[in-house]
Structures are given as C-alpha cells and as structure tokens.
Amino acid sequence: MQAEPGAPRRRLPDPVRALGHRNFRYYFTGQVVSILGSWIQQVAMSWLVYRLTGSVALLGITTFAALVPMLVVGPLAGAWIDRHDKRRLLIIVQGLLALQALVLAALTMLDLVGPALLVGMSVLLGVLNAFDTPLRQSQINSFVDDRADLPNALALNAMAFNVGRFLGPPLAGLLLGLTSEAFCFVLNALSFSALAFGVWRIRVAASPRATGSTASVFREGLGYVWAEYPIRTLILILATANLTASSYAVLLPVFAKDVFAGDARTLGMLWGAAGGGAFLGTVFLATRKHLPGLVSVVVSGAAISALGLLLFSYNRILPVSMFAMGMVGLGISIGNVATNMLLQTLAPDRLRGRVVSFFSSTRFGFDAIGGLLAGLLAAQIGVQRAMLLEGVVLAVFVIWTLRVRGRLRDEVVRRV
C-alpha cells in the first residue's frame, strides 16, 4: 500500500523528515494523543490493582494478562490482517479499545471491580492490542512516499510512544491525586478518537492482500523469520531484553509505595524518568541513517538496561533511582526501536505485516512473561532481590550478544 502519487510533501529538518509526508503527519498526530491516553490508563490500572489488593503477585498477573495475548494471538493476527483492509480494521479497533476503556471506567465508578474482573478486562485489552499494534506498525511504510524515510518514520513513531511514556505517568499521578482511576480510563477512551480521525483522513492506495488461508499465510511468515539468521537473532535478543528489563514496570508500584514510602506521584516520577530516558533514545535514533550501525545500538541497549536494573535494585535515594530508571528506559527504547527499524528494512514488502507481528508479539509477549515472573519472584524473595536478579541475568546475556555482534552486522550489510 503506497501513498497516492503527487501527495504534497514538505521539506523538513533531517531528524523529522518523515513528517514532511502528509499521510504520516495525520497518523503521527493521532498516535501521540492515543498513546498518551494509553499510558495514563496503564498507570491508573496498576495503581488501582495495588490499592485494592496490596498484592505484588496480582500486579504481575494483570500485566501478564494484558500482554500475553500479543504472544499467543499476535502472530496469527498478523497473518489475518494481511488478508484484509488494514486501514478500515485500524479504525474499527480504535472504537473497540475506546469501548473497553469506557466499560472499565463505569465498573470502577460503581465499585464493581475485583481481582477476577481486573484480570478479565486486562485480557480483553491484550486481545485488542494484539490486532492494534501490528495494524499500526505495518502501515507506516505506506504513509511515507520515499522508502528511504521509513527508518525515520519508525523512529518518530517510537518517539510518539515515548512522549506518552514520559508525560503520561506523571500526568496520571497528578490526575489520580486530584480525581480517580475511572476519570483516567475515560480520558483514555476519548484519546482513541484522535488516531481514528487521523487514519480516516489518510489517503492511500489499496494494498495488495495476501492470498490463501490464514494458516498458510502464517506458516509462510514463520518460515521466513526462522530461516533468516539476522531476523532470528534480532528477535532472540529482543525476547531476552524484554523478558528481563521490561519487568521493571510491574515492580515500580511496589518500589514507590514500600521502598520509597511514596504515593501515586512517586510512581509517576519513577515511570516518567524511564519514559524520559526512552524519549532521549528515540531522539538519538531519529538522526541515524547507517542501518548496519544499528546492530551495535541493539547490543548497547541491552547492556545499558542491565546496568540500570543493577543500580536501581538496592538504591534508596530517589534522584539516583530516577537516573537508573532513565538508563533502563533508554536501553529498552534504543534496543526495541533499533530492532524494529532493522526488521522492517530487511523484510520484503509482501511479508512486512507478518514480520511486524512477530516483532510485536515478541516485544510485548515476553514483556508479559517477564512481568509475571517478576511479580511472582518478588512475592517470594522481595522486590529488590528480584530486580537485582533480573539485572544479573540480562548482564550475562549481553556477554553472548557481544560474541555474535560481528556476524550479525555482516549479515545486515549483505542484505541492505
């Protein structure tokens, strides 16, 4: 699916050059608003779970429930959406996500939420996101006229995510102090209309659809991912980094309340620090043009995340902990985004939707598994020891990535 010929394009500074494409501007603007609302809901949901139950294990379970559908449903969703009109599907999914947030708000206002219901709503959100994420990601290439601008568009897309990640948690902490979790859920419901409107305004030619059954389309994508060494290796690094480093999100409410004796504002500050580091990472990647150099960025991201986890685990000085969270956010961001940039550039057009779905399912699915394990582990050995162990495991894995970095880079050079 390519942009219509003759679509107006503005010349902009190189770090934001993809915004010169009309279609991508509409998408990007809606994406920023939608993601800000999603981060507000995520923080409010975590606070609601811990406020009602005081259970760190349930924090891990609800996070797992929200993310594991990406791992289970995501790859099949990628094959299914390749057979349909992606633009129309994306608008429909925004409406369903808004409905989920409104139902959650109503149940919260009526004091009808409990552990089982919170887990159920998290599963529903995860299933919808299993379709939403590959739908968003796989269409970015069609929103820019020049393929050379695709890496910059992907970096800016990640920047939108991290703007929300940076601003959303502190704003959620403020809103939770002034209003309620239900109000945060309503704001998130409204935010989906921005992306739906932006996608509705986009004008692109119809994309060719994959033929055959969903199962055969899925098998074709899986075979490609497994056979290609750089694709397979990048996804392995992605899985390990998110299994360990991304688990911080589950443990932060416990650190905020029990280690730092704080409240929702403390949680917002820690989460916002991680978002600030992630935002800086995407700013850095927006200036990158040399794709093979991104292999070193992926490895560096895992190393920085490991150091951040180790520094954060037993530190009780809030400013230092915020700096450590910034390191974790930076490392996860540059690792995930650089991996996505490499995968989408390496993948042929006809398989990009399925490669993106494998990226998304790995990114969020292993985040889910890591969150569940971290929550259960923290309940057994304590939250600080759990964070320390995650950092040690990731640091050991980084040693292996240093051994394969040369071959991985050579394979990327050969293909681009």
From TrEMBL:
It is a multi-pass membrane protein. InterPro entries: MFS_dom (IPR020846), MFS_trans_sf (IPR036259), TM_effector (IPR010290). It comes from Thauera propionica. One of its GO terms (cellular component) is plasma membrane. GO terms for molecular function: transmembrane transporter activity. Its main location: membrane. Residues 23-409 form the Major facilitator superfamily (MFS) profile domain. Keywords: Cell membrane, Membrane, Transmembrane, Transmembrane helix, Transport. PROSITE patterns: MFS (PS50850). This is MFS transporter. The chain crosses the membrane at residues 26-50, 56-77, 89-107, 174-200, 234-256, 268-287, 294-314, 320-343, 364-381, 387-405. It is found in: Cell membrane.
